[in-house]
Design a protein that fits this description.
This protein is an alpha+beta fold. Helix content is 34%, strand content 16%. A 4-stranded antiparallel sheet has the order 1-2-4-3, sandwiched between helices.
Length: 176
Amino acid sequence: MNFLELAKHRCTTRGFTEQRIATVDLEGILSAGRVAPTACNQQPQRIIVVQQPETIGKVQKAYNTFGSQCVLIVCRDTRKALIRPFDQKCSGDLDIGIVCDHMMLAARELNIGSVMVGLFDPEIIRSEFDIPEYIEPTALLILGYPEKGFLSPERHRTERKPLAETVMYEKYSEEK
């Protein structure tokens, strides 16, 4: 399928079967994250792959894993930050978002569902996985085979605003 079709087929999955992800598929997903562009190619991502029930239990102390058999703890090495000098905005969260997006799309191409989560307690993750202070737990990427299938790619017709409401040309203008 072409890229736009793949993007339309990707959806948030909450509820996974007990089927484990094959090693070759997981490596493909991780490889997609590896080739993702990052600011000045700093590659700040540090990814902890969690697949054993006891370590998934550690993640569950910070957030619900929806029965997943594979969670990626996507961290950012703060020593690799590119800081915008005008307002001190750090590129790290953008970088991690791009890395996760690449991995979610690669997963969907393999008929593997995903949900990217930012609303978790990073201190629990830091403590449970012995993560040093300069590494920031940024996102959980929860992967697996959907228990109830995938959402229709046609949902975007009604669930997304038309381009005219989100895109402006040449200057900013408020909604009409």
